[in-house]
Design a protein that fits this description.
This protein is of the alpha/beta class. It has helices spanning about 20-30, 55-70, 85-95, 120-130, 150-165, 170-180, 195-205, 215-220, 225-235, 240-260, 265-270, 275-285, 290-299, and strands at about 5-10, 30-35, 40-45, 45-55, 75, 100-105, 135. It has 13 helices and 7 strands. The strands form 2 sheets. A 5-stranded parallel β-sheet has the order 2-1-5-6-7, with helices on both faces. It has a two-stranded antiparallel ribbon with strand order 3-4. The radius of gyration is 27 Å and the shape is elongated. The termini are far apart.
Amino acid sequence: MNTTILTITGSDGTGGSGVQADIRFISELGGVAASAVTSITVQNTLGIQEFHDLPASVVREQVEAIVNDLQPQVVKIGLLRRIDVVETLVEVLHRYQPQHIIYAPVLKSTKGEQLVSDKVYDAIQRLLIPICTVVLEPSDLPIGPRKHGHANQLASAVAFYLSHGESVDEAMLHARMYLKQLPADYAEGNSRSEELYNQFRDAVERYCNRYADVTFYAEQLNVSPRYLGQVTRRIAERSPKSIIDERVTTEITLLLTKTNKSLKEIAMQLGFSSQAHLSRYFKKQKGLSPSQYKQGNKN
């Protein structure tokens, strides 16, 4: 029996899921993996930022190139986000008729992001699932918190054991046994979010008397403003701008109430272009002008 396994799914640049993880996992088991990509994602360990779904014609060309040449008898399917891609795959698989088709529903990410629309999943249920040998259910996954790549790992392991002539029940049993011996963090990315968040807070403390824009701090940390925003929202459920503004506003209130400096002097010290600029900024943050705040504090 041909032991080549064709995986048809999306990409995951972190390597924790998607086609990258399938190839890695099947290879570690001792199998041979071929692939066709359905969607290219822009993502990191904090989540998915963008999808670039490939046209059905491109998916067809990838699949046909593999099945015509390598003739895999086991096909594993994951992320499908377009109805025309579902229809095309079903047409190709009907014509080719591999011995086993395994479908691992990829509907939501472990971060809770909706990956597949209801209309696409309706097409999957109507067209793809009836021709599958194995359709993974949530109950098939290990008990406990859902982890990145779990469904991929189980489906890839099932595909591997099916490619070696085992029955569906045997393949599922051996796949589960294999997953149990994997390290708990096998598919987890090495996110540096907590470390970066602490570095950001340190930088804000250091530079808040001169800079209040997110771009400056992102440059100091050698990351993009977008990534910095992902980190602060994950750790503190706040935007970088709100954290910076809070610290700058605190500094203004301290200078207003604990020193005899004029508003013009405070504006110059904190890097504002003018006294009026500082006043507008402060009122937006506190709902009061600096003079109103200072008077209220005295009272």
